[in-house]
Amino acid sequence: MSRSSLKKMILISLLSALGYLIMLIAFPVPMLPGFLTLDFSDLPALIGALILGPAAGIIIEAIKNILHVLISGSLTVVPVGEMANFVAGSILILVSWLFYHRKRTLVSLAVGMSVATVAMTAIMSVANYYLIFPGYAMFLGFSIDQAVAASQYANHGIRSLLTLIVYGVMPFNILKGIALTILMIPVFARLRNFIESRRQLI
Predict the structure, then answer these.
(1) What residue spans define the domains of the chain?
(2) Is CB count within 10 Å lower at the N or C end of the chain?
(3) Are the C-beta atoms of 19 and 66 separated by less than 8 Å?
(4) DSSP state of 40
């Protein structure tokens, strides 16, 4: 194994572990269903993508979620939540990286993350309606009616799966994307020299 490959593996491992630890610090959002918890574990994966490319960022997303299943979850059921987290994070990483790759500036990254937020919100809304909530019902025994009923405590306008998507899932993903963008701007400004130097050496 070359020294460059070893550095990549070490960096991916460190960022994956950091992503998993941040994933544990998840919290509910007021006025949104309690099962939609916000965390910022996509930041290490995004940093990894800026340094090593989008494939590395997606690998970090995958390892982070696998660790969450192995350590915090259960192997007896399909990890629907972790799959959703992986897909949402991968969309954010790919779109953000595409913009940053064209022009390596803070503005380009911020624009890319803004566009990624829109893409993530749209794709995850469709995925939640057709795949994720039916998946919860099929594999975890948490029926769509139960999800709707639980969501009404946060928002009385939620009366069906469609309104749950519109009033719950969509605002959640928009808020998540905005929060990640706001956090990423100062992180990138502080780590920019490190990111560029590592990208050239690895």
Answers:
(1) 3-201
(2) N
(3) no
(4) -
Under DSSP, the state recorded for 157 is: T
Mean pLDDT of 53-82: 88
Q: How far apart are CA 26 and CA 153, in angstroms?
A: 20
- Report whether pLDDT(88) > 60: yes
Neighbours of 30 (CB within 10 A): 5
Which among 168, 144, 164, 197 is positioned nearest to 36, based on CA atoms? 168
Q: Which pLDDT belongs to residue 56?
A: 96
Contacts of 105 (CB under 8 A, 6+ apart): none
Q: List all residues 6 or more positions away from 174 whose beta carbon is below 8 Å from its beta carbon.
A: 117, 121
| Distance, CA of 142 to CA of 76 (rounded, Å) | 15
Domain 3-201 grouped into CATH 3.40.50.2300:
no
As a three-state string, the secondary structure of 136-156 is HHHHHCCCHHHHHHHHCCCCC
In terms of C-beta distances under 8 Å and separation of at least 24 residues, what long-range contacts does 134-139 make, across chains too? 135/78, 135/80, 135/83, 136/80, 139/77, 139/78, 139/80
**pLDDT tens, 15-56?**
999 999 999 999 999 999 988 999 999 999 999 999 999 999
